[in-house]
Predict the structure.
Amino acid sequence: MLAQAESQYTTGTGTPITASAKLDFQITIPKILFLRVGSGADYTTNTVVNQIAFVVPANQVGTGGLGIAATAASGDLNDGKVTAKLVGNNGTITLTSTTLGALSNGVAGDTISYSQIETTESVLSSGTALAHPTLADGATTTSTVAPGTGKLVNRDAVWTYKYKNAAVVAPGVYGGVNANNSRVTYTASMP
């Protein structure tokens, strides 16, 4: 913050005598962009990557229906739920999700498409939940977040993931910790 001031010295015998001074204020605000998906604290950089894991019971493989919920320890909010937060102060923000390909178990031809991962959004603390961009195999998908008043975007949500379990697939562990196309990269961009 920068402040500049002036002064004035007055003398005399009249009534009243006055002196005045002025100040100019200046505040510089930088452009900010913050994206959080999972663990961490607001407005800090965090390198923790959460995992969402599903274990399909043998008697339910490929049955679809209500899908399979994530394991209890999945996501920063557990049960396949993560905190999602997007804050920016310079207008419309694009939010993308990128995958390297379908989930694999390491055997050629054995894959599960990201289209089998269902994501729902619910309000966390902002008035409107932050929408989740669609997941697609080996692609980047984009959603646009329009600003509110004064070019500001301040949205968050709880993103909950489920495995649709719509097809019988070969056995194995698909994905992992940054293995077999398991990693989804979310990116925010603002002008």
Remarks:
- DSSP finds no helices and twelve strands in the chain.
- The mean pLDDT is 94.
- Residues 56 and 68 are 7 Å apart (CA to CA).
- The domain at 31-189 is CATH 2.60.40 (Immunoglobulin-like).
